[in-house]
UniProtKB/TrEMBL annotation:
<keyword id="KW-0408">Iron</keyword>
<keyword id="KW-0732">Signal</keyword>
<dbReference type="InterPro" id="IPR008168">
    <property type="entry name" value="Cyt_C_IC"/>
</dbReference>
<keyword id="KW-0472">Membrane</keyword>
<feature type="domain" description="Cytochrome c">
    <location>
        <begin position="298"/>
        <end position="388"/>
    </location>
</feature>
<keyword id="KW-0479">Metal-binding</keyword>
<keyword id="KW-0813">Transport</keyword>
<dbReference type="InterPro" id="IPR051459">
    <property type="entry name" value="Cytochrome_c-type_DH"/>
</dbReference>
<feature type="signal peptide">
    <location>
        <begin position="1"/>
        <end position="28"/>
    </location>
</feature>
<feature type="domain" description="Cytochrome c">
    <location>
        <begin position="32"/>
        <end position="135"/>
    </location>
</feature>
<dbReference type="InterPro" id="IPR036909">
    <property type="entry name" value="Cyt_c-like_dom_sf"/>
</dbReference>
<dbReference type="InterPro" id="IPR009056">
    <property type="entry name" value="Cyt_c-like_dom"/>
</dbReference>
<keyword id="KW-0679">Respiratory chain</keyword>
<keyword id="KW-0349">Heme</keyword>
<dbReference type="InterPro" id="IPR014353">
    <property type="entry name" value="Membr-bd_ADH_cyt_c"/>
</dbReference>
<feature type="domain" description="Cytochrome c">
    <location>
        <begin position="177"/>
        <end position="285"/>
    </location>
</feature>
<keyword id="KW-1003">Cell membrane</keyword>
Length: 412
């Protein structure tokens, strides 16, 4: 009789455990450390960043578009010639916390060593132990494509002097254990601010606006502070944990880069760690919401008509959506973000929410790129950002055109 699905899964899991155990014995590693290292590598999003589309896991080659050009992730498999197999533990720790490779070359901070320098040494050793067990892949790193003179890595010495924080995680004795664990994950291994914090002209975090949202690869990573209008002020700790675990909650669903983060990282974290992240984020004060100029009546009327024709069937006349099916637009923090890029991106290109074990059917929204003009997209975006009590800056047709051109260019 053929194996059942559960039997096949059990056999595969047993084979994986056996392979890891043999590898750990060969390297003199403790299996528990390797297992913990795998969990920590998931928490650090290592697989997603270091795996190119269609490529082998951890072999690198994934492009990251930045304002300074394209940077490609490195091969971190244990191949001794093209990966990190010949690195010592000290080499690995130096790269992770100082951004310096064994040959003395500097790593670009697109690799989030400014965050990883706050990771405990025992956790770095565990991650290293796990990476020694993955399949080695002989694949040279893809050369970066950066504007002059940023191809000269020696310039990063000055960047580090200016922007690199002191190493080590500093526990707050006036905060709970959950808060400190959440801070460790958000500010260290999880490097949430790498996407969710705006950058200055040198590509460094604007610390004064930490976690208040950042633009990356034609997406806007939303505000994670307690702002009521465009942050997590209306989310409970349970809302945050549910979103990170399952990919959706009563406020919306994870799409775009965040869908990948949920898939490869947060959905694999323990409930205790998800709670800790939620506790920490709920304690992050947000900036006070400023006044927003009221959009022109003509724009709102045009947007309302487009919404009625194209959007209302799913999102409802009052913008309430359908619970756990179609995201609510009324009171939606992402819709009211100071930067409309993600809302425009979803209208133009559509979106597919992440599918997780807890919620295997991810919601989808069709693309309207082919159907609506720049002006029409701007009008309907302005409408949903300012109807039903929402408030956010109006969107110009030029903003839509710029994003449309950018996303088409990156897809070519």
């Amino acid at each position: 009789m053929p194996f059942s699905r559960s039997s096949r899964y059990a056999a595969a899991a047993g084979a994986l455990v056996a392979a890891l155990l043999l590898s750990s014995m060969a390297h003199g590693r403790d299996f528990a450390e390797i297992r913990r290292g795998r969990y920590l590598a998931d928490a650090g999003d290592c697989r997603a960043c270091h795996t190119a589309e269609g490529g082998k896991p951890f072999a690198g080659g994934r492009p990251l578009e930045t304002p300074f050009g394209t940077i490609y992730s490195a091969n971190i498999t244990p191949d001794r010639q093209t990966g990190i197999g010949a690195w010592s533990e000290a080499d690995f720790a130096t790269a992770m916390t100082k951004g310096i490779a064994p040959d003395g070359s500097r790593l670009y901070p697109a690799f989030p060593y400014p965050y990883f320098r706050h990771v405990a040494s025992q956790d770095l050793r565990a991650i290293r132990a796990y990476l020694e067990t993955v399949d080695p892949v002989h694949q040279s790193d893809h050369p970066n494509d950066l504007i002059w003179p940023l191809g000269h890595r020696s310039l990063l010495r000055g960047w580090n002097l200016l922007f690199l924080d002191k190493p080590g995680f500093r526990t707050r004795t006036d905060k709970s254990a959950d808060w400190n664990r959440g801070a460790y994950l958000v500010e260290g291994l999880g490097h949430c601010g790498a996407c969710h914090t705006p950058k200055n002209m040198f590509g460094a975090d604007k610390d004064s606006a930490a976690l208040q949202g950042g633009l990356l690869q034609n997406w806007f990573a939303p505000n994670l502070t307690g702002s009521m209008r465009d942050g997590l002020g209306q989310w409970t700790e349970n809302d945050i944990a549910e979103y990170l675990k399952t990919g959706s909650n009563r406020h919306g669903s994870a799409v775009g880069p965040m869908a990948e983060v949920v898939n490869f990282t947060t959905s694999r974290l323990s409930d205790a760690d998800l709670k800790a992240i939620a506790v920490y984020l709920k304690d992050m004060p947000g900036p006070e919401a400023g006044s927003v100029a009221k959009p022109a009546d003509a724009v709102m009327q045009a947007g309302a008509g487009i919404f009625s024709d194209q959007c209302q069937a799913c999102h409802n006349e009052g913008g309430a959506g359908v619970a756990q099916l179609f995201a609510p637009l009324k009171g939606n923090a992402g819709v009211q973000a100071k930067d409309p890029t993600t809302a425009l991106r979803i209208i133009l290109d559509g979106a597919k929410a992440v599918a997780t074990d807890a919620k295997p059917t991810g919601q989808a929204m069709p693309s309207f790129d082919w159907k609506l003009t720049d002006g029409q997209v701007a009008a309907v975006a302005t409408y949903i950002r300012n109807a039903w009590g929402n408030a956010a800056p109006a969107v110009a047709a030029g903003d839509v055109k710029k994003l449309r051109n950018a996303t088409r260019a990156s897809a070519e």
